[in-house]
Amino acid sequence: MSRKKVGTPTLEQIEAELKKEQHKHSFGRVMRSTIYALLVVAAVAIITAVMFFPVLRINGTSMTETLWEGDIVVALNGSSYKTGEVIAFYYNNTILVKRVIATAGEWVNIDEEGNVYVNDKLLDEPYVTDKAFGNCDIKLPYQVPEGKIFVMGDHRETSIDSRNTAIGCVSEELRVGKIFLRVWPLEEFGFVK
Question: pTM of the prediction?
Answer without folding.
Answer: 0.69
